[in-house]
């Protein structure tokens, strides 16, 4: 049986992949809302800080072509366990749409909710 820290790393890694799958789909808002703590903040390049306070505003900000990529990959993924119910993930993002490249560093902080699910607290991207 894996130790608790290995399990946390695996669960958070799976959630980070779910986050990026959602971010790169045609309509990410609904899935991001499901993945997020109700007080989550999202910081994307050249956008104001997004919160879930107003779901309509959140959905509007993430409408296509926002992050709609033909391909993407994340690498140099590092998971830092803050405590048994919190972790942060950093990674590099390589994506492309119609020949245009998107390169960024990403940082997501996750917390484990009372139902045991890991949820986004903050997500930030810095375009490089």
TrEMBL record:
Gene3D superfamilies reported for this sequence: 3.10.450.50
Domain DUF4440: 15-120
Domain of life the protein comes from: Eukaryota
Record-given protein name: DUF4440 domain-containing protein
Listed InterPro entries: DUF4440 (IPR027843), NTF2-like_dom_sf (IPR032710)
């Amino acid at each position: 049986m894996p130790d608790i820290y290995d399990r946390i790393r695996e669960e958070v890694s799976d959630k980070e992949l779910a986050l990026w799958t959602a971010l790169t789909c045609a309509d990410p808002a609904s899935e991001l809302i499901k993945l997020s703590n109700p007080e989550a903040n999202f910081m994307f390049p050249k956008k104001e800080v997004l919160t879930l306070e107003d779901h309509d505003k959140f959905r509007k900000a993430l409408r296509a072509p926002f992050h709609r990529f033909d391909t993407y990959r994340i690498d140099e993924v590092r998971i830092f366990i803050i405590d048994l119910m919190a972790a942060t993930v950093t990674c590099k993002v390589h994506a492309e749409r119609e020949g245009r490249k998107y390169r960024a560093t990403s940082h997501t902080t996750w917390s484990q909710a009372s139902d045991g699910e890991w949820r986004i607290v903050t997500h930030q991207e810095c375009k490089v």
